[in-house]
Write a structure and sequence with these properties.
The chain is an alpha/beta fold and 250 residues long. It is 39% helix and 15% strand. It contains ten helices and eight strands. α2 links the parallel β2 and β3. α5 crosses α7 and α7 runs parallel beside α8. It has an eight-stranded parallel beta barrel with strand order 1-2-3-4-5-6-7-8, surrounded by five helices. The structure holds 2-phosphoglycolic acid (PGA). 2-phosphoglycolic acid binds next to β8.
Amino acid sequence: MQIRLIAGNWKMNGTSDSLREITPVIEATMEFHSAVLICTPFTLIDRAITHVRGSRVTIGAQDCHPEAKGPHTGDVSAQMLAEIGATHVITGHSERRQHHRETNALVRDKATSALDAGLVPIVCVGETQRDRDAGKALDIVSGQVRESLPDVPQSGSVVVAYEPVWAIGTGRTPSLGDIAEMHAHIRRLLVEKFPGSRGGRQTPILYGGSVTANNAAEIFSAANVDGGLVGGASLRARDFLPICRILEQA
Ligand code: PGA
């Protein structure tokens, strides 16, 4: 069966008090079939893991360094994250591609190090408004999928998140037709890259960018949408939980 995943991306938000927003999510998702993940800032990961122990909710990170250890002041490796019990790491989020000039090659190295450490990388791809206006959205995403994903024989435990840059934090989302077109395109690329029965056909493809409880049912109904990567609406249980429930029922 296809894995369905709802992932919260807290970005640079959250202090100790914020952990209480996870409690209602733990309680309400105990019987869920879909996976529920919250990617907190580094500072909260360890405590959040203790907080969710014994529940369906798992905790991930928002970035990692491509190497396991070494002279990289301020960085955190995938191995370190795995050692404390994180399950996933977001790689190549557009905010890192833009603000930290991360290239597809770097994103691929990060995702590869995540897999080596036993973490599931959530590799983000997505076009800018300018790319879309120029009719280049599919081409840009093709390059990102081909070049940012790790070269493993089986996709195994890789997740792809399609996040149009212009939809992140803006309240704007693509039409359902555009989402379905892009997800079908990514599916074809994944099957090409990871042939075989448990390959690209099984790789979860998340949609991200201004997902809320108001649009989640429509978005999750599209073919090849296996869940969501949720930013702003993941910070409060009262916003996030309805989205988790919609995916579970979709
Ligand atoms: P948003 O962010 O839901 O606030 O648009 C999504 C993301 O950047 O992952």
